[in-house]
Amino acid sequence: xxxxxxxxxxxxxxxxxxxxxxxxxxxxxxxxxxxxxxxxxxxxxxxxxxxxxxxxxxxxxxxxxxxxxxxxxxxxxxxxxxxxxxxxxxxxxxxxxxxxxxxxxxxxxxxxxxxxxxxxxxxxxxxxxxxxxxxxxxxxxxxxxxxxxxxxxxxxxxxxxxxxxxxxxxxxxxxxxxxxxxxxxxxxxxxxxxxxxxxxxxxxxxxxxxxxxxxxxxxxxxxxxxxxxxxxxxxxxxxxxxxxxxxxxxxxxxxxxxxxxxxxxxxxxxxxxxxxxxxxxxxxxxxxxxxxxxxxxxxxxxxxxxxxxxxxxxxxxxxxxxxxxxxxxxxxxxxxxxxxxxxxxxxxxxxxxxxxxxxxxxxxxxxxxxxxxxxxxxxxxxxxxxxxxxxxxxxxxxxxxxxxxxxxxxxxxxxxxxxxxxxxxxxxxxxxxxxxxxxxxxxxxxxxxxxxxxxxxxxxxxxxxxxxxxxxxxxxxxxxxxxx
Length: 484
Prior knowledge:
By secondary structure, the protein is of the alpha+beta class.
């Protein structure tokens, strides 16, 4: 692998150049690393700024990498450097600076250091750029710089630092040129006083050489909850499957919450349709969408060979969708969430709130940018109920080490029943709140659910191979469904 420095780097000293050889292998171990392109072949800075020059030093950087398959990707880093790393930050260590003025110092992940994250917020609030990122405030209120920061430990494709229990700083680890989907959506929803999403406070930008403006992250209202929708659903699914909950496994559990969640999603869709254009999609455009879905399926089967046996039947679902539109059935598209699942829903005392509007992390910006059917969000949530049930089932089987075959079958049936009733409750809640009734759109809904399951199979094969069986089971089920 080669390392080099871009001519446009905004920093007075080569602070990052000695670190590039040690940063590359560390990058490849990050949860937010794009592994689809293979290992790194080249890495170079695009923008570098020293936010704080006294020990511990805070360095902000955007790196451009080239993967072995030739694809390029931007990554955003906040790095700390200090002569002696405190024991409490030992897990954040990356490497030792190999040369230069700070040779022998430790370079570490700065988002894990509350002191440096406090320095960053104070610098941004004071508009002290020094060639670094700039903050554009949305709220009329100043940022609360005196709150204690902490890094959220959730397994995500981005990073998030919380200040007290009021402010969340979301860091886009793979920044993109603006305008940014999530920033646009949250700004529009905040302007419309949406009660189902966090309020946007500000957006972080930087200017790359050549005038390219990059969206680095955002500051939004923090919504403290004991557990998100995913954790809540898995716990209730596990109790229902095991029969240890306070409700009868066949009828109780999560259904009231699933129905309310459907209503919350419909409310957000309605506000997004008011803020952004809602269009009618032509049959030719639907046919092109079906062609792209088939192409994604073909590529996915190369990466996940277990999908190959289902290509014919899953492709037929996509073709059914195209024929459905060709027969004159109306298809509409608008701005949607783009990556809706239970982990993106928070059960607050005021009801469900939706977060993370940037779309699926492994899809290109071009794929995520255009209007989509609201049924894609619905399909994503339906898939999430299946994930929750299967995760709950795995937990029950782990607790019941080696259960008898009859008990295993009973648990499996309860998991399937939990999935079915909560999917139905979510759809009913969505329709009751004024959204398009998904029950009246079975053909596109099946196609979108299949497309989502194929995407999940690729995602799991790259990031969580132990979970691959969940989307493959869904693909198997969907491949046996035909309709028109």
